């Protein structure tokens, strides 16, 4: 899940007050939702929430895919470089 990778990267780089944007309403809402998540991806969501607590001033927000095109291009470019 890219949300997990994004939060982990922000922590490792020491980025202060990052804004995590996603173009999937369900994922953003699930990460922002209070309480335990028991869905199929619940363990990943709970891990994202746990990591997210360690970054003060950070937030998750929804953005339309059209507005998030640059991030998609960067993700496609950077994905093979591992």
UniProtKB/TrEMBL annotation:
It holds the Pfam family RVT_3. Residues 5-77 form the RNase H type-1 domain. GO terms for molecular function: nucleic acid binding; RNA-DNA hybrid ribonuclease activity. InterPro entries: RNaseH_domain. This is RNase H type-1 domain-containing protein. It comes from Prunus armeniaca (Apricot).
